[in-house]
Amino acid sequence: MSEFILKEEPFSLGILSRVPTPVNGECFLLYKTGGGEKESIVINLGDRYSSAEVRHGHYNKKVTFSLDTKYIHYNQRVVAQEDDFYFDVTIKISYLLQDVKEYFFSERIEDDDIRSFIRDVIKMYEGKWSIRQSVKAQNDLQEEIERKFRKYRSIRFRLQEVRVVPDEGAAKMLQSNRDKAVEIHVAKNETDEKIAKNEQSQRVLDSEYELKTKKIKDMALMMKNFGSLGPIVQEYLQGDMNGEQLYEYIMKAKANDISMLNTAASGDLLTQEEIMEKIVEIMGDTRYFQMGDEKQISNKVEKMIEEKQEEIKQEETEEISLGDGDYL
Fold first, then answer.
1. C-alpha span between 40 and 30 (Å, rounded)
2. Bridge pairing between strands 61-66 and 155-166
C-alpha cells in the first residue's frame, strides 16, 4: 500500500445519506472504477459538497489519504578521490501530498522509491570529490536532489539537511594540514614583523648616522671658517646663545690671544712686523662678530694699525737723527 493511502473501500451514497466528512489530517478520494482521474472527486475537511452531485457521479470507491508530513533520514558513505578515504553523507527530507488525484492515478511514490532516488544521486559522485571539497559536495547533492524531485507534481519535497563530512582519518589529516598552514602563516607574519622592525631600526640608525655626519661636516666647516671658535659660533647659530654672549666670548678669546702675543713680544721672540701681523690677524678677523658689530670692530682695528705704523715711523726717525749726530 502506498505511503499516504490509509484505506481503500467500496462506496455508495443513499438518497437520504450525507456526503462523508474526513477527520483532521485526512481527505477522501471518491472515484468510479475504470473512470480514471476525470471521474473522481476529492473531499476535504471543511468544504461543502452537494449530496446530489456526489450521487450523480456514481462513485463506487472511497480512498482515505493521510495529509501528514512524512520524513526520511538517509545515511550513506561515498568514496573520495583520495585512496582509502570517504565521505559520510546525511540526507534529511520532508514530503507531503500536494495533488491527491495526480498521486493516486499517476505518481504512486513510496518511501523506498525516495530512498532509491537519493542513493542513485549519491552514487553519481563516487570518487568525484576531494576530501577538501565538503562544501562543494553538499552543494552538488542539494542541487541534484532538488532537480530530481522537482519533476514530481503530486508530492512537495523539502530538503531539511544535506551534510557531507570526511571520515575520521581524512578529518585528522585535514586538521593537521590546517595546523601546519596556521603555523606557517604565523611564522611568516612574525618574520615579516621582525623584518619590518629591523628595517625600521636600520632606518633610525641611518637617520642618526646621517644626522651625526651632518653635524661633523657642519663642525668641520665652522672650524675651517672660524678656527677654534667654530663650536661657539655654531652654538650661536643654533640659538643656544645670543649675540651679546657670542661677542663677549670672542672678545675674551681675542684678549687672551693679545696677552699671549704681549708675552711673546716682551721676550723678543717676534719682530715688530710679525707682531703687527699677529695683531691684524687677531683683531681684524671680523668674521666672528654679528653683522651690527663688524664695522665698529673693523674701525678699531684700522685705528690700532695706523697708531702702530706711526710709532714705527717715529722710532725710525729717532734712529736716523741719532746716527747723524754721532757722525757729526
1. 5
2. unpaired
H helical segments located in the chain: 51-56, 100-105, 111-123, 134-149, 168-226, 230-237, 243-266, 272-283, 291-327
Grid cell at residue 131:
576530501
| CA nearest to 91, candidates 154, 152, 156, 165 | 165
Closest to 145 in 3D by CA, of 130, 132, 164, 127: 164
DSSP structure string for 131-165? TT-HHHHHHHHHHHHHHHHTT-SSEEEEEEEEEEE
DSSP state, residue 77: E
Are 39 and 57 within 8 A, CB to CB?
yes
Look at residue 20 and give its three-state secondary structure.
coil
Residue pLDDT, tens place only, 260-319? 767 766 766 667 677 666 666 666 654 444 444 445 544 544 555 566 567 666 766 665
Residue reference for cell 557531507: 164
How far is Cα 177 from Cα 312, in angstroms, rounded to an integer? 102
pTM for the structure as a whole: 0.52
Helices 291-327 and 272-283: crossing angle, nearest 10°? 170
Classify 287 in phi/psi space as left (phi over 0), alpha (psi -120 to 50) or beta. Answer: alpha
